[in-house]
């Protein structure tokens, strides 16, 4: 139902911003014809849209051409979406007979041109994390391609367990957006004003808790790691000083007494493998099993500032 603002695929902020700038939204109308006069744009013919999706849920707009209106204007701006520039793909022979990119889903190499790899939003419009995953996939494919190795061995599609979003005790509203006044939006400079540092921190605290590493597994999904890193404590080196307990932002480090000796332990249900405890341990008693050297180095550099 696109007969009101509640039925159109746009955020409330987008609708509000357009309305502020004097844009009038006409609901339930498609475009059948662009009419010119004297070699210039004159008006568009807009039949009434009766449905947008078919019975199978596919995008298949249907219009009643007997019920049409004409909208006159001086300039017509066609802004029905965005996509990649197709001329390059056409010239390089990367489009199939249906005019689409033909890509191997495992290697992301073109099925029409050997040695050409395609990923990111040009392949599919999605999340930034998916584009990052495509980058990692293509990097491995190029490495194998240049080495003459099997392009698909060990890269079959994996199945991942699903989990429900954890419940939260309370929810915070998103900070109100700050925009440049509508009368001042006369150029292409972004009109959304950025958050202050305090607002950025407050916004970050609204994020859903993904749980401990053993539940999240996002790094594995993105192909950044093959398994969850494990924090290990060498009991022979640990003196029980409690430095790790003091700095752990997730409360995953605690002290326990065993055989009259105080030792540090890790609670896997809380640990997020950030590496902070490793950087502060004076005895070097803590390590990450698969050695996330870069993460540790970055954390140490941050703490040293």
Please give a structural write-up:
By secondary structure, the chain is an alpha+beta fold. It folds into four domains: 5-72, FAD/NAD(P)-binding domain; 96-147; 174-207, no CATH class; 213-304, Alpha-Beta Plaits, CATH 3.30.70.20. The chain has nine helices and nine strands. The strands form four sheets. Strands 1-2-3 form a three-stranded antiparallel sheet, with no helix packed on it. Strands 4-5 form a two-stranded antiparallel sheet. A two-stranded antiparallel ribbon has the order 6-9. A hairpin with a 5-residue loop joins strand 2 (40-53) and strand 3 (59-72). The mean pLDDT is 82.
Entry summary:
The protein has 305 residues and is α+β, with helices and mostly antiparallel strands. 24% of the residues lie in helices and 18% in strands. The model has no long low-confidence stretch (mean pLDDT 82).
What is the topological layout?
Layout: H1 12-20, E1 33-37, E2 40-53, E3 59-72, H2 87-91, H3 128-147, E4 178-179, E5 192-193, H4 197-204, H5 213-216, H6 218-221, E6 231-233, H7 243-247, E7 253-258, E8 261-266, H8 276-280, E9 286-288, H9 293-304
Antiparallel strand pairs: 1-2, 2-3, 4-5, 6-9, 7-8
Name the helicity range: 10-25%
Give the N-terminus to C-terminus distance in angstroms: 55 Å
Largest sheet, in brief, is:
3 strands, antiparallel
Kindly provide the radius of gyration, computed on alpha-carbon positions and rounded to a whole number of angstroms: 28 Å
CATH class of the largest domain: Alpha Beta
- Overall mean pLDDT score? 82
Secondary-structure-derived class: alpha+beta
Q: What is the string of SSEs from the N terminus onward?
A: HEEEHHEEHHHEHEEHEH
Task: Name the poorly predicted regions.
Answer: none
Total number of strands: 9
Which strand-content bin applies to the residues? 15-25%
* Structural shape: extended
- Give the strand line-up of the largest sheet: 1-2-3
């Amino acid at each position: 139902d696109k007969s009101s603002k509640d039925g159109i695929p746009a955020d409330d902020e987008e609708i509000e911003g357009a309305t502020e700038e004097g844009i009038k939204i006409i609901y339930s109308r498609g475009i059948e014809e662009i009419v010119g006069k004297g070699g210039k744009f004159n008006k568009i013919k807009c039949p009434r849209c009766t449905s947008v999706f078919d019975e199978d849920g596919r995008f298949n707009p249907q219009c009643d051409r007997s019920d049409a209106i004409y909208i006159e204007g001086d300039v017509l701006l066609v802004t029905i979406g965005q996509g990649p520039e197709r001329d390059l793909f056409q010239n390089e022979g990367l489009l199939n007979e249906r005019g689409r990119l033909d890509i191997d889903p495992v290697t992301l190499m073109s099925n029409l041109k050997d040695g050409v790899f395609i990923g990111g939003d040009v392949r599919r419009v999605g999340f930034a994390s998916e584009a990052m995953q495509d980058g990692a996939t293509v990097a491995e494919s190029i490495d194998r391609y240049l080495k003459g190795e099997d392009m698909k061995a060990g890269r079959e599609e994996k199945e991942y367990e699903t989990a429900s979003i954890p419940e939260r005790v309370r929810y915070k509203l998103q900070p109100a957006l700050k925009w440049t006044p509508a009368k001042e939006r006369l150029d292409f400079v972004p009109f959304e004003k950025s958050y202050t540092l305090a607002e950025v921190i407050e916004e970050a605290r609204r994020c859903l808790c993904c749980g401990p590493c053993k539940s999240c597994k996002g790094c594995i999904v993105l192909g950044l790691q093959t398994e969850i890193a494990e924090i290990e404590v060498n009991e022979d080196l640990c003196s029980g000083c409690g430095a790790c307990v003091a700095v752990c932002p997730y409360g995953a480090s605690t002290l326990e007494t065993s055989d009259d000796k105080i030792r540090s332990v890790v609670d896997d249900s809380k640990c997020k493998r950030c590496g902070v405890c490793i950087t502060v341990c004076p005895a070097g008693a803590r390590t990450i099993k698969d050695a996330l050297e870069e993460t540790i180095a970055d954390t140490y550099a941050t703490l040293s500032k």
